[in-house]
Amino acid sequence: MLDDRQTRTEKLAGEIADAILEGTLEPGSRLDEHMLAGRYGTSRTPVREALRQLATTGLIELRPRRGAIVAKVTSEQLEMLFIAMGELEATCARLSAMSMTPIERRRLGAHYDQMGEMVAQDDVPAYTAANTALHAMFYAGAHNPVLSEMTAGLRRRLAPFRRAQFRAPGRLARSHAEHGAVVRAVLAGDAASAHAAMLHHVSLVEDAFEQLAGAPAGTAPEAARMKAG
């Protein structure tokens, strides 16, 4: 039951995040729990939990006596977050190449192959979930709990922006190809190449989001449009 509730909350948080990134919910607007519950056909409890979850991403702010407000994320903030994300993920990939066990490497390779089938079927929801799991394998494979926790926390903060990239045409196939470079380097134990490939991948994730954000007004948040400019 707890897993079902958590899944519903995550799904709702994703839907609200998408509305913010698409510009339907504009920066500065108040997110009323009653309104959101009616809009998404649910009760206030999962709405409240979803808003708390989104507050950790920086997409919304929880203010005393005002409730939840859609935050205005600046281009500078996004750039700093993506730079930090790239450095942390690249370090995880480098350490994974050095530290992953044979079992972890086999699981990584198998998971990557399964993602190829999702690309062929253009299954965005499945690929999005598998993408998160793939990166988690690199975090765990680094065998450094402190680094893993830091990286996973920053990823949660950037999750709505990273998920939005998959709406860009052809992004699924490009993402899979970028992952392939990282996976091959890790499986070969090539730490330097794994680091470089992951750093390159995260920079292209940012580029994909910028291109999507550069779409006509109303399809992306104002902060993202500013960054794309």
Automatic annotation (TrEMBL):
InterPro entries: GntR_C, TF_FadR/GntR_C, Tscrpt_reg_HTH_GntR, WH-like_DNA-bd_sf, WH_DNA-bd_sf. Keywords: DNA-binding, Transcription, Transcription regulation. Pfam families: FCD, GntR. Residues 6-73 form the HTH gntR-type domain. PANTHER family: TRANSCRIPTIONAL REGULATOR, GNTR FAMILY, TRANSCRIPTIONAL REGULATORY PROTEIN. This is GntR family transcriptional regulator.
